[in-house]
Amino acid sequence: MWNYDRKLQYPVNIKHPDAKAAKIIISQYGGPDGELAASLRYLSQRYSVPYRDVAGLLTDIGTEELAHMEMISAIVFQLTKDLSIEEIKEQGFDSFFVDHTTGIYPASAAGVPFTASYFQSKGDIITDLHEDMAAEGTIA
Fold first, then answer.
1. Boundaries of every domain in the chain
2. Closest by alpha carbon to 111, among 89, 92, 126?
3. Does domain 19-136 sit in CATH 1.20.1260.10?
4. Does residue 12 have a pLDDT over 50?
């Protein structure tokens, strides 16, 4: 179904670890409007779309969101790599570290684990597309 290229769409090369930044960026991975929710949102909603082209577009977008998850994971990993316990404590990453060390785990910046309640799939194309736009931040 997919071809995986084994390289990031956009290379991540962080020179200076920063657990404070990682604590915030982890929300883009597993927070309410993060990449995990986005990928599941689109890949779930595609099935009830009555238009094949739109379903295909939602599949493409959902797949793209998976690639974003990989980039966010690389960012968080590089931001926390090789930090001492003292640095982890000083930079406020200790609450995450206690449960996950420097593993990549879907959670919000507040430490709330990912939940499927972050996204909706109602089976109505208009409702679902509005939810998509709200999650992407395009509804004012």
1. 19-136
2. 92
3. yes
4. yes
